[in-house]
Specification:
Blueprint lengths: L1 E5 L3 H12 L3 E6 L3 H11 L2 E3 L11 E4 L6 H9 L7 E4 L15 E7 L16 E5 L2 H14 L3 E3 L2 H31 L8 H11 L11 H4 L2 H10 L4 H18 L3
Parallel strand pairs: 1-2, 1-4, 2-3, 4-5, 5-6, 7-8
Antiparallel strand pairs: 6-7
Bound molecules: NADP nicotinamide-adenine-dinucleotide phosphate.
The site of NADP nicotinamide-adenine-dinucleotide phosphate (NAP) has 24 residues, from helix 1, helix 3 and strand 6.
Length: 259
């Protein structure tokens, strides 16, 4: 396929490289920042553009990988350069595909469900691709495109994707925030984060083998109130973290002892 990528952030950076790697042609890459767009376009051999007005027609697919709140505005600008029947998708987990409907007749979503950072390699063989479109033919083509970069492709509609995204935030964004809190505390206490790494790894390994609910351990489900009170007292110096600790402890108690 001949593909243009709009956005050279975490997703634009990795997705354009993976698409190129499996044989697709990347026609143009857009970012408002010249340094960012050059970094990606050089790797994938695409024309770099830092203004939407330089967008060319002729690609089979335009993939918008900009921040969620900018997708509609960017699509509106793209429409000034592209015909209404152009195939356009975005990569967001939570924004409805219909955000593109006012501008394009053939629209959809191509959502790679993983946490992407430019500094970290992306292993697409282990990245589910969730596709959707308002047109059956386009949905099938997006599915086929997904299959070229990943063995795990799913057809998922706006409603399902929005719910899935809530859980993605829980398992990734929130757990990572908890890691960052732990990091902060350990730094203050001059203890190394590396002592926690085996625990973090075992926790995530277990959830791929058993139901998470059955794998829960710790003072909240054992009912070790004295331990919880000691933790809460220590956390007096971290009021924000204390609130999170209390909220999660309460939630755990409700899940395991709902009386
Ligand atoms: N990161 C993830 O783990 C992940 C995973 C799956 C899906 N997604 C989705 O993929 C999309 C991109 O996420 P990301 O993590 O790649 O974001 P990012 O690294 O923050 O990059 C966002 C890009 O959006 C561009 N942008 C922001 N406001 C803009 C505007 N008003 N007009 C034009 N461009 C604008 C920025 O462009 P400039 O370079 O011009 O500033 C930047 O290149 C989002 O919809 C996100 O929900 C992200």
């Amino acid at each position: 396929m001949n593909i243009t990528i709009i956005g050279a952030g975490n997703v634009g950076y990795h997705l354009s490289q993976r698409l190129k790697e499996v044989g697709h042609n990347i026609q143009q890459v857009f970012s408002r920042r010249t340094d960012k767009v050059l970094r990606v376009s050089k790797i994938v051999g695409a024309q770099p553009i830092d203004n939407i007005s330089s967008l060319q027609s002729g690609a089979n697919l335009y993939i918008i990988a900009v921040k969620d709140d900018a997708i509609g505005d960017v699509a509106e600008k793209m429409r000034k350069k592209l015909a209404g029947n152009t195939w356009v998708v975005h990569t967001s987990g939570s924004v409805p595909a219909t955000v593109l409907a006012p501008y394009f007749n053939n629209y959809g979503v191509f959502y790679p469900l993983q946490t992407f950072s430019i500094s970290r390699m992306a292993d697409f063989l282990n990245i589910p691709i969730l596709v959707d479109s308002n047109k059956e033919l386009m949905k099938n083509r997006l599915y086929q495109l997904g299959e070229t970069i990943s063995p795990k492709v799913y057809r998922i509609n706006d409603e399902q994707r929005a719910k899935l995204h809530v859980t993605a935030v829980m398992v990734n964004n929130f757990t990572n925030h908890l890691y960052a809190m732990a990091e902060d505390i350990l730094k203050k206490e001059e203890l190394p984060m590396e002592v926690l790494i085996p625990l973090i790894q075992e926790t995530s390994k277990k959830v791929s083998l058993f139901p998470a609910k059955e794998m829960q351990t710790g003072p909240a489900i054992r009912g070790d109130e004295d331990t919880i009170q000691r933790h809460m007292a220590y956390l007096d110096q971290f009021p924000d973290y204390q609130k999170v600790y209390q909220a999660l402890t309460d939630s755990l108690k409700r899940m395991y002892d709902p009386k």
